[in-house]
Specification:
132 residues, mainly alpha, Four Helix Bundle (Hemerythrin (Met), subunit A), 5 helices, 0% strand, elongated
Length: 132
Amino acid sequence: MSFMLTTVVWSVIILMVVIVFQSMTGVANNGLKWGLGPRDTSKDHTLIQSRALRTVQNHIESMMIYVPLALVAHLAGISGDLLVKGGWLYIIGRAVYPLTYWLGLNYVRTLVWAVSLIGIFMVLVAILTGAA
């Protein structure tokens, strides 16, 4: 499997982790019966539950940008240091981001988010220069 496809798989793994955590916060707030039921009604979200939900949404948004670029790079056979470094920055940033958000580390969270965004831009530049 190519490096870029590996980063897509890791991005999905991260998404699965944040979804499970978000689900656990809902069950912790509303109880197991609620979690196993239709979830028609629920208590107001706790702080961590709200953060967990926003983390899931944020990761999906980032995947909507990164995954198509990773697939283009893979299908076009583009490789190189810029692409690999960008992929690593994206994955590391996305792996650390949820923890910083859940813990309320605002400035660190923004820095980590920026690292993953820089990784996306590096992949984009690698594609644009590699395809030329």
